[in-house]
Amino acid sequence: MALRVPAHGMPGAAPGCPPGDLFVVVRAAPDPRFERAGADLWRVETIPVPHAVLGGRLSVPTLEGSVEVTIPPGTQPGTVLRLAGKGLPSFGGGARGHLYLRVDVQIPSHPTERQHQLYEQLLATETVAAR
């Protein structure tokens, strides 16, 4: 982003010339925790299957520190949760942007024997309910 500050640059070459404009180039360093979209920030959070099904609480980093977020029961993969006002300040001093969390659900690739048994029991209840 380039900012122009009128009449705060170097004075003109001829005697008595007014100062020119000052141009300031601002570059923001990337933050590995977030992806930026204007004043809004995006983050992907991965939760285990039980938290997606039953709900839960999740600690999420923000620019001011961590906040607790409630994961609602029945959260689907790809669900987007909005943390209002937790993004970047808007240019010109307006309202702050938002922090958006895209929820990813971690499916166990190698479930333990106990997990396998529990998923089998869960599958059996779904089969009965589908009839």
Summarize the structure.
The protein is built from two helices and eight strands, in the order E-E-E-E-H-E-E-E-E-H. It has helices at 49-54, 113-130, and strands at residues 2-5, 22-25, 35-37, 40-48, 56-62, 65-71, 80-83, 99-106.
Any overview of this molecule?
The chain is of the alpha+beta class and 131 residues long. The chain has 2 domains: 1-30, no CATH class; 31-109, Urease metallochaperone UreE, N-terminal domain (HSP40/DNAj peptide-binding domain, Sandwich). Helices cover 18% and strands 35% of the residues. The protein has 2 helices and 8 strands, in the order E-E-E-E-H-E-E-E-E-H. The chain has helices spanning 49-54, 113-130; strands at 2-5, 22-25, 35-37, 40-48, 56-62, 65-71, 80-83, 99-106. A 4-stranded mixed sheet has the order 3-4-8-7. Strands 1-2 form a two-stranded antiparallel ribbon. The protein has a two-stranded antiparallel sheet with strand order 5-6. The model has no long low-confidence stretch (mean pLDDT 91).
Structural topology:
Blueprint: E1 2-5, E2 22-25, E3 35-37, E4 40-48, H1 49-54, E5 56-62, E6 65-71, E7 80-83, E8 99-106, H2 113-130
Parallel strand pairs: 4-8
Antiparallel strand pairs: 1-2, 3-4, 5-6, 7-8
Q: How many DSSP helices?
A: 2
Q: Give the termini distance in whole angstroms.
A: 61 Å
- Uncertain spans: none
Radius of gyration, taken over Cα atoms and rounded to an integer in Å: 25 Å
**What's the CATH architecture of the largest domain?**
Sandwich
Mind summarizing the main beta sheet? 4 strands, mixed
Q: What is the CATH third-level topology name of the largest domain?
A: HSP40/DNAj peptide-binding domain
Across the major sheet, the strand order is 3-4-8-7
